[in-house]
Amino acid sequence: MFTFVSGGLRSGKSDYALRRASELGPPPWLYIAPEVEGDDDLKARLARHRRDQDAIWRVKDAPPRLEDALDPTLVEGHGGMVLDRFSQWLSGRVASRPATDDRALLDEVQHLADRLYHGMIPVVLVTTEVGLGFLPASVPDRRIVDVVGIANQILAERAESVVFMVSGVAQRLR
């Protein structure tokens, strides 16, 4: 079972995901995102959530293959998980590989979606909606928008619940 959360920048996606994951299972919970180390804003948000909820969060950097974050030895004993900044993780993967690898990346996302669907613990996956802005003029940026947009569609299609965040308000789509 997994929940797919999308929205614009600073729309409240991560805060919603932290609350939702803590409702889905008992502590401790697992938070995984790319580039957690050194992110003072993220650490402040997690600290605020801990203070508000007496939450127990274990924080880890996202692995190169996001599917590895679902390894049974990693998730065992956790009541829920937040996979945050999916679009940032995927953008890094797109930027580091040739365009000929885009289909393979999307196949990897499909496999991730299947693993999330059949997952051992509830997961809230957070991504940025890239389809609300203009199409970038530069080819590399356009490629990232294309791949992230398709990946978001793949994940949303497999998710049990789909939530769109607007100005801190959760709009449940499914």
Number of continuous helical runs: 6
- The CATH class assignment is Alpha Beta
Structural class category: alpha/beta
Order of helices and strands: EHEHEHEHHEHEE
Low-confidence region ranges = none
Helix amount = 40-55%
Molecular structure report:
It is a single chain. Strand 6 and strand 7 form a beta hairpin. The chain starts with a strand and ends with a strand. The chain contains six helices and seven strands; from the N terminus they run E-H-E-H-E-H-E-H-H-E-H-E-E. By secondary structure, the protein is an alpha/beta fold. The mean pLDDT is 89. The protein has a single domain (2-172), classed as P-loop containing nucleotide triphosphate hydrolases (Rossmann fold), CATH 3.40.50.300. Strands 3-2-4-5-1-6-7 form a seven-stranded mixed β-sheet, sandwiched between helices. Helix 5 (102-117) packs parallel to helix 6 (139-158). The chain has helices at 13-24, 40-53, 72-75, 86-95, 102-117, 139-158; strands spanning 2-7, 29-33, 57-61, 81-83, 123-126, 161-166, 169-172.
In short:
This protein has helices at 13-24, 40-53, 72-75, 86-95, 102-117, 139-158, and strands at residues 2-7, 29-33, 57-61, 81-83, 123-126, 161-166, 169-172.
Task: Please give a handful of descriptors for the protein shown.
19% strand, Rossmann fold, 174 residues, 6 helices, alpha/beta, 7-stranded mixed sheet
Topology:
Layout: E1 2-7, H1 13-24, E2 29-33, H2 40-53, E3 57-61, H3 72-75, E4 81-83, H4 86-95, H5 102-117, E5 123-126, H6 139-158, E6 161-166, E7 169-172
Parallel strand pairs: 1-5, 1-6, 2-3, 2-4, 4-5
Antiparallel strand pairs: 6-7
Helix pairs in contact: 4-6, 5-6
